[in-house]
Design goal:
Layout: E1 2-5, E2 16-20, E3 28-32, E4 34-42, H1 47-61, E5 64-70, E6 85-93, E7 106-109, H2 112-118, E8 127-131, H3 137-142, E9 159-163, H4 165-172, H5 180-184, H6 187-198, H7 204-213, H8 218-237, E10 243-247, E11 257-263, H9 264-279, E12 283-287, H10 294-300, E13 308-312, H11 316-328, E14 332-337, H12 339-355, E15 359-365, H13 382-387, E16 397-398, H14 405-420, E17 423-429, H15 430-434, E18 436-440, E19 460-461, E20 467-468, H16 511-526, E21 535-536, E22 543-548, H17 552-564, E23 570-574, E24 576-578, H18 584-589, E25 593-598, H19 603-612, E26 617-620, H20 629-641
Parallel strand pairs: 3-10, 4-7, 7-8, 8-9, 12-13, 12-14, 14-15, 15-17, 16-17, 22-23, 22-25, 25-26
Antiparallel strand pairs: 1-11, 2-3, 4-6, 5-6, 11-18, 16-24, 19-20, 21-23
């Protein structure tokens, strides 16, 4: 969905900005500046689809938004159990926001497991909409409820809305030729209709989506639309929902432009396609499916019209081997994976370092080690990206900070790979990959020119006057070697993993040559031109919060809270982790305290301490979930006061 828009701080709590009482017995409308909604249910209840549709309509309405999908690693976890709960959280507002929110204002719980798994995150006074049809004795016992929480007064501190969603859905669809089980599947659309009424969301897009999704099954499409409309009408007519809510568009939050809602993986895929177009090179993806990176393979496979070739290999090693071969053949080559796959690809990444060919290695980080937490987020692959290869094998590392920023990060990674003839590791994570936010679609003239010049003939003259091609004769500014496409007459040269002689590329075991080549490859990476790190410090603070990757949203939200409370705190965020920006050392020296929040046990802090001899303080979390702004603000306040 796209919308046209034409930037106030993220607040700790939603604020009522107006209330309108309608005449003639019509329901009241209350205006809010922001809302956090969480849909939760069994992994087969369609919560991700429900959340995605509510998000799309919210984006088309013009709100700023941020989402947090959360689902089990199992393809189909046991129904009605706590491990099987799937949820989708959406934070939307009339101003710019950066996180999916800490505590939901509204929880839609489709069964007892969903209620029990999420009730601990709700503040007192939050609204809870429960599907009472699922609160059977057996379902309650399955998750450890001795008595129904709907009847034992344990939910007295919340605004409880008991709704028989399943019964109402089946009743709404009784005219359709569907079995009861088939009709029950539409209860998520009933819930979506109810929430769409409560928050004045557009409905046309969802109905169009359902007609398209079930185009080959018009009866199913009509049934889902009927359930959706029934939910909307239920909200309008029932006495249990006396108030609906409006959140105005975020008309002042963004520059003028055309916007759409986008997830991190989709933005990254679009960035790769854009990079190939700007480089005038075919795009080749060699990949093996792995959560949470598989969406990139799925998306790129749809774009053959842009010269994209996707190859689903039999394993991770074959995927990167094919990608490196495509790089040798003149393609913009990419391989996508997550942490365990990076471990398997490490030997071929080292080969790419030796060959000095452009290759993008996209790591969508997840919880580890080993298989770890396939559907949860972490940023614990930084040291693996920096050092996870044998020998001295330096590789540039780039990290996006938001879902939309994945587009620009892909372009930047491609620029470095093509300019400096090197593999580049792009570190995204599950939080960015699956989360979404508005993205301004750039004009073509805003995109960088990434065109490269292939070697076409001899580039060196021997002492006897003979003109020859030297595959390792370097550009004096970038230290990049020529990119010679196989089959070009006169440019035959040797490739492989054994050490090369400087210039000629011949196999060499000479100690002095190896020392020279190792230092030259390192100097090439150290010399990469990256922008200086920018510091946000309006109050000449003495404490700097330094982050990287997806911690940008929670850190910025926490910093806003502290500043609103009168605290002076500075913030800087790194996109380039190897090499670091040249001014980073000077920036760090300006502050008495440096705090580095990370979803690992202090990997960036370790690098900063080692390189700059700064006593950086770590604040770490490795529970598979992103930081909460309130939690981070409290930790930063403690660091400031210490």
């Amino acid at each position: 969905m796209t919308s046209q828009v034409s930037s106030p701080a993220e607040q700790a709590d939603a604020t009522v900005v107006g209330e309108q009482r309608k005449p003639g017995g019509a329901k009241d409308v209350r205006r809010l500046d922001r809302v956090i909604i969480r849909f939760a249910g069994d992994s087969g209840d369609g919560m991700q689809l429900t959340g995605d549709r509510f998000t799309s309509e919210t984006a088309s309405f013009g709100n700023d938004l941020s989402t947090l999908p959360n689902f089990p690693a199992e393809i189909r976890a046991p129904a009605g159990t706590l491990p099987g709960v799937s949820s989708f959280q959406l934070h939307f507002a009339d101003h710019d926001i950066l996180t999916p929110g800490d505590a939901p204002n509204v929880l839609v719980a489709m069964n007892p497991a969903a209620l029990k798994a999420n009730i601990g995150d709700l503040p007192r006074g939050a609204e809870i909409i429960v599907n009472t049809d699922e609160f059977t004795k057996r379902a309650l016992q399955k998750v450890g409820y001795a008595a129904s929480p709907l009847e034992d007064d344990s939910l007295d501190g919340y605004h409880l809305h008991p709704v028989p969603l399943t019964t109402l859905t089946v009743e709404a669809l009784k005219e359709f030729d569907l079995s009861r089980k088939e009709a029950e599947r539409s209860k998520n659309m009933f819930a979506l209709g109810l929430l769409s009424w409560m928050y004045h969301r557009p409905t046309e897009g969802t109905e169009k989506f359902l007609n398209s999704k079930f185009a080959k099954k018009p009866e199913i499409a009509a049934a889902n639309i009927a359930a959706f409309r029934a939910g909307w009408n239920f909200g309008e007519t029932t006495e249990d929902f006396a108030v609906s809510y409006e959140v105005a568009p975020a008309s002042k939050a963004f520059p003028v432009g055309t916007y759409r809602n986008i997830s991190g993986n989709l933005a990254l895929a679009y960035g790769l396609v854009a990079a190939s177009q700007q480089a005038d090179l075919p795009l080749f993806l060699g990949s093996y499916p792995i959560t949470p990176a598989s969406d990139i393979l799925h998306e790129l496979s749809k774009h053959k019209n842009f010269g994209v070739r996707t190859f689903q290999a039999e394993d991770e090693i074959a995927g990167i081997g094919a990608a490196l071969g495509a790089a040798f053949g003149g393609s913009l080559a990419v391989t996508t994976t997550s942490g365990p796959g990076v471990a398997l690809k490490s030997e071929t990444i080292g080969l790419a370092v030796s060959l000095e060919l452009p290759l993008l290695v996209v790591d969508i980080q997840r919880g580890g080690p080993s298989t770890g937490l396939p559907t949860k987020t972490e940023q614990a692959d930084l040291l693996q990206a920096m050092y996870g290869r044998n020998g001295e094998a330096p590789v540039p590392v780039v990290a996006p900070k938001t879902p939309a920023d994945c587009f620009d990060a892909a372009l930047e990674a491609a620029r470095i790979a093509l300019t400096y003839r090197t593999p580049v590791i792009l570190l995204s994570d599950g939080y960015l990959a699956n989360g979404s936010e508005p993205w301004r679609i750039p004009d073509l003239d805003e995109l960088p020119d990434l065109r490269v010049r292939f070697a076409t003939g001899p580039n060196h003259t021997l002492d006897d006057g003979t003109e020859v091609f030297w595959p390792y004769k370097r550009d004096p500014q970038t230290l990049a070697r020529p990119w010679a496409i196989p089959g070009t007459p006169g440019l035959e040269h040797r490739i492989g993993g054994i050490e090369k002689q400087d210039g000629t590329g011949n196999i060499s075991y000479d100690p002095a040559n190896h020392d020279f080549m190792v230092r030259t490859r390192q100097a090439k990476i150290d010399g990469i031109d990256v922008p200086d790190v920018e510091v946000d410090d309006p109050d000449e603070a003495r404490t700097l919060v330094l982050g990287w990757g997806s911690t940008y949203g929670p850190i910025t939200a926490a910093v806003r809270r502290l500043r609103a409370a009168g605290e002076a705190v500075a913030q800087a965020h790194l996109r380039h982790l190897n090499p670091f920006p040249r001014n980073l050392g000077e920036v760090l020296e300006r502050y008495d305290k440096v705090v580095i929040p990370e979803m690992n046990l202090g990997q960036l802090a370790t690098l900063v301490r080692a390189k700059y001899l700064v006593d950086a303080h770590s604040y770490n979390q490795v529970n598979g979930m992103p930081f909460k702004a309130e939690q981070l603000a409290a930790a930063l306040k403690e660091a400031i006061d210490d």
